[in-house]
Write a sequence for this structure.
């Protein structure tokens, strides 16, 4: 199944060029009072929701997909876990370009040496919300990535059990301000983590290690690779991350980007694709100033 969120937090199931509005299925979710769970309640209960969706979908209204404002399919991730330099050719690219590494030795090492990093959950948006660039006097780059979402909790998960903890897959854009600051700082402004266009349940993608992925900006293809080129695959990333912290339903993993990262600017149109997941379009704008936002 392909679950999307759209409009004002409505839930949909994608069927071709249409979306069945199955928001009523959310009624099966448990009710909570403060303090709220530190994980995504929909993702934690997706099996129950999916069962209700199957009953509702045939009678639910179908909406044109291209008319909807798509949100992130995960509303409340506890963590966004990101994998730096997880493609060999991207590592070579970073090492050879001072605009990418800014003479920071930590930016020129393999993922096996520098580990993972976290992005702020507040940076998360869906493709329909677009990217609002900050620090326009500096280079802002696109990075297309396969994303996956954790469906059940665990820690110290072995790689042979890791895929049992995945609920589904999506496309991610990890937007980056270049500079000498820590990665988490430069990659966590509002809208610098795009997830979408929907969540494809794991039964539709039995092997996430053989997927083509690409990105085009204004019609120009800039990145094109396959997830087989990752240094650490999905199972290895789960094993690595869970050896440091517990993973919870709704935690998002961005698995790293291949070579070809380049600058984006307000007015650009990004089209990102991952095989068996789909394609999403994302518009780029300048972020509003504090005075304009108020």
């Amino acid at each position: 199944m392909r679950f999307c969120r759209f409009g004002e937090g409505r839930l949909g199931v994608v069927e071709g060029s249409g979306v069945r509005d199955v928001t009523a299925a959310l009624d099966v979710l448990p009710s909570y009072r403060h303090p709220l769970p530190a994980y995504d309640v929909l993702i934690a209960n997706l099996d129950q929701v999916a069962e209700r969706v199957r009953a509702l979908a045939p009678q639910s209204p179908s909406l044109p997909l291209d008319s909807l404002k798509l949100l992130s399919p995960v509303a409340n991730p506890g963590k966004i876990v990101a994998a730096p330099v997880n493609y060999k050719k991207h590592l070579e690219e970073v090492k050879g370009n001072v605009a990418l590494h800014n003479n920071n030795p930590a930016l020129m090492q393999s993922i096996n040496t520098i580990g993972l990093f976290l992005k702020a959950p507040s940076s998360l948006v869906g493709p329909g919300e677009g990217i609002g660039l900050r620090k326009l006097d500096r280079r802002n780059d696109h990075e297309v990535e396969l994303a996956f979402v954790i469906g059940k909790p665990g820690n110290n998960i072995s790689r042979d059990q890791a895929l049992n903890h995945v609920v589904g897959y999506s496309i991610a854009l990890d937007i980056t301000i270049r500079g000498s600051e820590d990665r988490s700082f430069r990659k966590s402004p509002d809208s610098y983590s795009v997830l979408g266009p929907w969540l494809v349940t794991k039964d539709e993608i039995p092997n996430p290690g053989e997927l083509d992925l690409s990105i085009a900006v204004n019609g120009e293809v800039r990145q094109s690779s396959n997830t087989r080129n990752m240094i650490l695959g999905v199972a290895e990333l789960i094993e690595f991350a869970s050896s440091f912290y517990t993973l919870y339903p709704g935690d998002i993993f961005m698995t790293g980007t291949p070579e070809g990262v380049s600058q984006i600017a307000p007015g650009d149109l990004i089209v990102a694709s991952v095989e068996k997941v789909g394609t999403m379009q994302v518009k780029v704008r300048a972020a509003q100033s504090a005075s304009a936002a108020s």
